[in-house]
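Hey,

Quick one before I head out. I ran the complex with adenosine-5'-diphosphate overnight. Inputs first:
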Amino acid sequence: MKDFALHILDLAQNSLRAGARFIEIHLVEEVENDLLRVTVEDDGKGIPAGELEKVLDPFYTTRTSRRVGLGLPLFEAAARRSGGGLEVTSTPGRGTRLEATFQLHHWDRPPLGDMAGTLLTLIAANPEVDFLYRQRLNGKEFTFDTREVKAVLEEVPINHPEVLGYLRRELRENLQEE
Ligand SMILES: Nc1ncnc2c1ncn2[C@@H]1O[C@H](COP(=O)(O)OP(=O)(O)O)[C@@H](O)[C@H]1O
Ligand SMILES: [Mg+2]
């Protein structure tokens, strides 16, 4: 079973493959509704209307390197197992939005996993892309925005090893599940 960090790494890679320059990820609990809502929104090339209904089919992929595309079907299956579901909306030329819900206290609800590792991997390999990550879990809220980091860094690249080391400590400290 995959944790959220691995699912989100996968989903963000779809966005990157679609040419996204900005990816916004939310993982936010609604305690009053016993719900965990996960959204991934990008400004990539989008999904043509005729293909939207196929993206949850495990045998659909626009990749040429592999014949099955499992990222979205596995994420949807995880949401359904936890008493929720997945909705995909997309506007060609504008971007794509995924919204998944999970029952917060469901037995099968995935754990958070190494979200700091996911964000660092994405940032290290895609310094020109911006990421906004917002998490609200166990009553604690944390927001991380690479645009703010870049504004402070000025001309130092965000994937400079010393910057990544600093971000690793900062993210690890703030993104523990407990
Ligand atoms: N954020 C996105 N933007 C544009 N197209 C997407 C996005 N996410 C998924 N897709 C489309 O849906 C297909 C299936 O995605 P996925 O299930 O993750 O499998 P895979 O990435 O292996 O193809 C992709 O090949 C792509 O065509
Ligand atoms: Mg994928």
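The pocket of adenosine-5'-diphosphate (ligand 1) is lined by residues 14-15, 18, 42, 44, 46-47, 55, 60-63, 69-73, 96 (CB under 6 Å).

Talk tomorrow,
K.
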